[in-house]
Amino acid sequence: MQITPSGQACGATVTGVDLRQPLSADLVGAIRAAWLEHHVLAFPDQDLTDDDLERFTLHFGGFGDDPFIAPVPGRKHVIAVERLADETSPLFAENWHSDWSFQARPPAGTCLYGIKIPPVGGDTLFANQHAALDAMPDALRKRVEGRMAIHSAKRAYAPDGFYGEGDKVKRSMDIRPSKDAEATQLHPYIRAHPETGRLGLFSCFGYIIGFEGMDDEEALPLLIELYQYQGQEAFQYRHKWQPGMLLMWDNRSVLHAATGGYDGHHRLLHRTTIAAA
Description:
Layout: E1 2-5, E2 12-15, H1 25-38, E3 40-43, H2 50-58, E4 79-83, E5 109-116, E6 124-128, H3 129-134, H4 138-144, E7 148-152, H5 154-157, H6 165-168, E8 184-188, E9 190-192, E10 199-201, E11 208-211, H7 216-230, E12 236-239, E13 246-250, E14 254-258, E15 267-274
Parallel strand pairs: 2-3
Antiparallel strand pairs: 1-2, 3-13, 4-15, 5-13, 5-15, 6-12, 6-14, 7-8, 7-11, 9-10
């Protein structure tokens, strides 16, 4: 197995391993160590079925719960991230986020496998939140030090949310808005990574709707300021897709966002979620 760092703020490419084959405990351990170091790993030239994708996911934890998006037919833990060639709805997941941070036990990671990849566009951006905290100006850090962030999916998946009932019929993805999205959950905004202990920023405006004990008049401008800070280019890795590429990322370390630029092309990826350790 060879690991080639991206040279950007995070990310690495892994070659010399066939993910269709059984993985030894030593190999899984080596992949996990690289994942924790680089936060995003790309495995090119893989010819995977959904069985292969699920088996790989289970090497790194149980399956996480994927709310508000129906799985593909015949599967419980695989969802399709899809956009048809003639689709005109707003791009899915184009804002910075950490997957399902509004859960009581947010997922450790996400695996995404490229099936139909357009010849142009569709890059995925990642922002290293350990680096973001390390570089954070003292004055800004003092405003969030020790704060508990209020997480919720309501802005996205409530019936009146961005992906709510008014949006649902326009998409190829099977999104299921629900009043359950209005629930809230507290997490420290600055928190230690549960495996490495390294401090980082966790999630951002969108799934964070406020701070405990702070009025919205103060919290919302602060969240917008933080959002702009957290995703800046100095913390970014831009991932370029290829068909047959598997990507895994650490939701505890990075934010991610989709990009467009492939209008007129069909894009299809299959996704699984790695449960919290």
